[in-house]
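# step 3/5: fold
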Amino acid sequence: MTESVSGSALRLPRARVVPLSPAPASYAAAVERYLTGAGIAKSSARIYRISLTTWGWMLAGEPAPTGPARRGAKPPDFPVAAIDDPALPEVLAELAAARADEMDADTVNRELSIARKAIGWWQRQGWIEGDPTIGIKRRPAPPDRTKALAENQIAALWRLDVALREKTQWKMLYESAARADEVLCLNVEDLYPQDKRGKITAKGGATEWIHWQSGTAQLLPRLIARRTRGPLFLTDRKAPAGTPTLDVCPETGRARLSYRRAEEIFEENTRLLANPLASPEDIEDLDGWTLHRLRHSALTHDAEDGTSTPMLLARSRHASVRSLERYARPSVDSVARHVAERDPTAHRRT
């Protein structure tokens, strides 16, 4: 920083970063270089790749597909250097605003955060200079006080007529209070069925344990069958060519179930549970539950049952006690019982 004649500050132009390595030929290649070079945990890489693929359309100046059109859509091919196009920030702001109007604030903010992390890493490599997202603001996300499912809703979930894969996956998510991406990254060789636990790769890349209960323990042997290695949760079809070896079962040739597909299946199967008064003709246009609500519900129910703070920290694998505040709020069942127990008319009637 220097002083001008009038005393006002002058900002010197930023020195160009010398590339640490040759820039990738395409944006898609830059994404893969980021995921491996920045040390993104395997459990998080899937979500990062999906978000950065979505941003790929917008960074190419095109609207990102949403809904069913997003599945299987091929992202545009363009050089990563195109991100420095001086006209891009204005176009990107319009595209991001249009997308934000169609998505929930949490998803929009998460995708923006991931895009900025990748762009910052590419800048440090010297592949690009600017950040076209600089003018895009995070969307306000009012807290959702209904994330914890009621106990009767959890019971109704277990009664759904779904495939063994979904039954096992949902039971494990609720009983272990694990994140969905962590569970979907489990391999058969990561399981210790006799101890009702398994090894997962958590946020930050740490290897940690998750623990489940009898519901999951009873279903796992049927799901695994005689397999001894490879992804635990598989797709119904053979893996397409080019699927990473780590995501292919060496015994069946089927691919690892993706987070996106697992979320779609859960959402589709829970629409009636989430909208019990909806008419059959309207149900296709309504939303079901998200997989994260199983984790949120499990930890909320633990807190209601008097689970200690150290145990909640261990179960949730959060580093801060403050992160537990979202689970310490009593659920709808707990509040309903509290009100019913203090209903004087009901007591007189009894």
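# step 4/5: annotate
Residues 263 and 290 are 7 Å apart (CA to CA).
# step 5/5: archive (pending)
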